[in-house]
Amino acid sequence: FIPSTDALSDDGYFLSGMFFDVKVQKLSQDLEQKESRHIITNYIHPLFNRLPAKFSEKPRDQLLIHIRSGDIFSTWVAPHYPQPPLAFYKLVISRLLAENRISSIKMVFENRLNPVIAALEAYISEIGIPLATQSGTLADDVAALANGRYLVFGLGTFGPGVCHLSKRVEQVFYFASGWPQHFRGIPTIGTIIEVLDVAGAYTKVGEWDNSPERRQLMLDYPLENLAFDDA
Known about the structure:
Elements: H1 22-29, H2 33-47, E1 62-67, H3 86-98, E2 104-109, H4 116-126, E3 131-134, H5 138-145, E4 150-153, H6 158-165, E5 169-174, E6 189-197, H7 212-220, E7 226-228
Parallel strand pairs: 1-2, 1-4, 2-3, 4-5, 5-6
Antiparallel strand pairs: 6-7
């Protein structure tokens, strides 16, 4: 560690390194999901004292949608984190409405930098479904999603963490541009449904650059290019 008494250079100090080294990743991959859940619930959860000891029960007919925003749409444009198109969320909502599973929706997001957020709000308003939104602290957002009956996530590690913290999740829907996610095997999840880019024309892992073209594709990508993996 740099001593607090050290004078910083005019440009500051910068940390660089291989933080996602293959050898380190292998350690996590060797853990079974039950072992991961035990560690998360018994060791990690208690350390985050801003999280409630018990998460509240959620309405059984509410769809909870987490939309990643923030850094990848501003200062930290990581090419390996493309987020789902608007059509993905429309597809999931249409399915759950047709199955008479939901009567309201809650969207949870860090901020409004993701262009899909405003468009999805407009769509939900158009179809007349009650909508609530939340943009709070990390702890607030985790608490808002944990124990949700129907959960929706994009690409990232946030979703599996929420599911590990939940007592029970009936259905999880996710879109990850074909990239493996770690939902499968989590004992608290009933059904896991991936939405696939069957046309293969959407932004792939490694291609995200937050360009106007990529952002517009998030809004314009056709719904017919997507399909549920259980269809």
